[in-house]
Queue: 3 jobs
Job 1
Amino acid sequence: MKPEEQKGRAEGSHKQTQVIAIVRLRYRVCAYLFNLGWLAILAGFTGVLYADSVQQHQIIFTMITVAGFGIFASAFAVTLAIYRCPVCDRFISRFRPKKELCEHCGVKIR
């Protein structure tokens, strides 16, 4: 094998690992935001249910619940914005048949 071919293969595998790392980072950001939203919603609902009869406590927990829904909605928007293939810049669906490949350009993303 020629040195040029070996160099091309090494660069291709390096690019492949970069693509996988980028997709994992984007997925992790989206997952953290969704989890934070659900946690705030759950904490707010639990607080509203178990709060004292003091009106001020119920308002605080209701505000936490509304903030949780806001975080969850922003997580959905961020997912649509950044969870894309780094090569062809198309949205990567969670419900695609082959999870390890981009369905548009065929690059390995997992």
Note: The helical segments are 3-50, 55-82.
Job 2
Amino acid sequence: MHPMIKAFIVSDALLYSSLNIVNILFAVYVTTTVHGGTVESATGAIASGFVVRIIVELSIGRRSSKLSDSGKLWLVVLGMACISASYAGFAISHSLAELTRLWMLNGAGWGMALPTKLGIVAKYINHDQASQEWGLTDALNMASIVVTMAIGAYIVAHFSFGLMFALAAVINTLGIVPYVVFVATQKTQPN
């Protein structure tokens, strides 16, 4: 398996774990913590993020194809940093307007990172073993999602939403590490 695919698999598991900690509990957070928060307003905030994601994905997807692999990886890192910043912001934001802006930042991050990293994966995946590599990715994603959702629910029940959002930010930020390591090891290897 190519080292880029290994980096992708680990990073993707962390990315989706952090997303699912937040997604599963965000409406509960809004309805119990945000003044005037409702399920509809929570859904509206998340939907705003998806609209931004669509716009960014459509524009970045086209442009990122022209970048070098290193440039693409740094765009993925930037997108993931935006996602982490949004989760950290959730921990300290208590108004629907702030939360909506943070979901928009989150959507922009996903819009930068996702099409770019999938383009990289398409280049490096072993097409003879693609089903195996995608299967491993999905299995690891689902397993880590189950674990992090349980941890997130425990943290909310026994501590706070703020700590849960901070954990999501940390987990997502850890998802950047495999790409940074990949870039660093590629620079040290002889051509």
Note: The chain has one domain: 3-188.
Job 3
Amino acid sequence: MNKDFAQKAYEKLEMARRNHERLKLMIANDARTGEEVMILMVGTRPIARILQEPNDLEPNFKKTELVAPMWERASKLDERQSVQDFDQDELTVTAVIDGHLKSVGL
């Protein structure tokens, strides 16, 4: 698993958790395809694209069990709260994610 992607995913999850009252769905245009899509927003920040065909995905529960403790530990150490706070790197979180991924071989 790519460390940068894992950290971005963690940050999107934490933005949603810590700002849940600002969550909303919006219609957006995909610049690459021209399609209209649905996205999940925290305030004015897009954090996820809503899947139209989620049944095409097969969750990997084993790998998720390996990384879930990493996200929980990072969450406890992360002092960022607002969406804008997440624009700044949190070196402690980066170290937790990098170290955990290496320790479990991902």
Note: Helices lie at 3-18, 61-77, 91-103.
